[in-house]
Amino acid sequence: MNRMSIMKKFCLTTALALLSLSSAIAQTDAYIKLNDHHGKHPRVVSVAYPGDANTLDMYNSIYGHGAVIENPWVAYRVYMDHRQSLDLYVKHRPGLELDITGFYTTSEQMADGYGCDVLWAGGSIGAGSFRGWQNEVPVTIDSVGTRTQPVISPRCVEVKDVRWVYNGHHIDMTQRYSVSPDSRDLWVEIDMSGHEPADLFCTGIQKLESGNMGFITVDGVGASWGSNVPDKARPELVEQVGLSIFVNPENIVDVREDELNYLFIVRPDHNGKIRYRVRSCGDREDGGFKSATDWFSHIRALSRHNP
Predict the structure, then answer these.
(1) Exposed, middle or buried by CB within 10 Å (0-12, 13-18, 19+), for 234?
(2) Which of 27, 94, 155, 250 is deepest in the core (most CB within 10 A)?
(3) How far is the C-alpha of 99 from the C-alpha of 103, rounded, in Å?
């Protein structure tokens, strides 16, 4: 093979590799957008606030109220306030669309086949949010030195809480949320330092507003199914939603069920980490799950073969 042929082969191989990489990256996206009065909503790579910032000001300064991350099937936003809640968006057809709808899908966009926000979290733990656990109830991350949300890559966003005052001492914590182009899962890793052996925390999934069905197991699996109205200004939009969570058994201390949630009480492992993943769906998804029976069968099968 002559030199020209070798160069052509090299260029073709490189081009195909880059195309493959670009295609994979294009199946995920993560961003933070500023909420500006010109309506441009520019992307930024990180936002940080001092701990004494007004939580409502933080929440409203971000378009979408926090960092957004999506895979082909679903998207999540992590609220930029003391709750740091995970909210859910489900798509009608696979692909990337949050840069267009921004969690605020119009009626015209929905008619064109775009997805929308499907979850009303209220005071619940939402779709796998992370909380403290004090006096037998979940508590938010209220008192911190600084609160930061950086976008790490098109597949990963973080929430960093520095000097979180918890049980009378300081904890530094990073919540890492990541997705991949070939799975509907949201992978969560909590990394903390400064915690003490008696410190407990919690995560879980919420019960849906209407017709909720669900279960939770001591070995780390929880699931729920039901309907809710995610936008109270549009009561005609009733969304059927399925939620699930798989918690690393090494982190589990106890399981609880309250009026709003299925909860796992957790503590960090010897490396200061808590790991779990969230899997969600909605019946607006074309060809997706349409009943609690189908959803729970899927989750139970998944827990047996891929814990």
Answers:
(1) exposed
(2) 155
(3) 9
The structure's pTM equals: 0.89
Joined tokens for residue 77:
């936003």
Say how far apart CA 58 and CA 49 lie, in whole Å. Answer: 7
Half-sphere exposure at residue 152, Cβ-oriented, CA atoms within 13 angstroms: 13
Q: Output the CA torsion sign for 277, 113, 45, 25.
A: positive
| 202: amino acid identity, one letter | C
Tens-digit pLDDT profile for the chain (307 aa)?
544 443 444 343 433 333 333 444 469 999 999 998 888 999 999 999 999 999 999 999 999 999 999 999 999 999 999 999 999 999 999 999 999 999 999 999 999 999 999 999 989 999 999 999 999 999 999 999 999 999 999 999 999 999 999 999 999 999 999 999 999 999 999 999 999 999 999 999 999 999 999 999 999 999 999 999 998 989 999 999 999 999 999 999 999 999 999 999 999 999 999 999 999 999 999 999 999 999 999 999 998 755 4
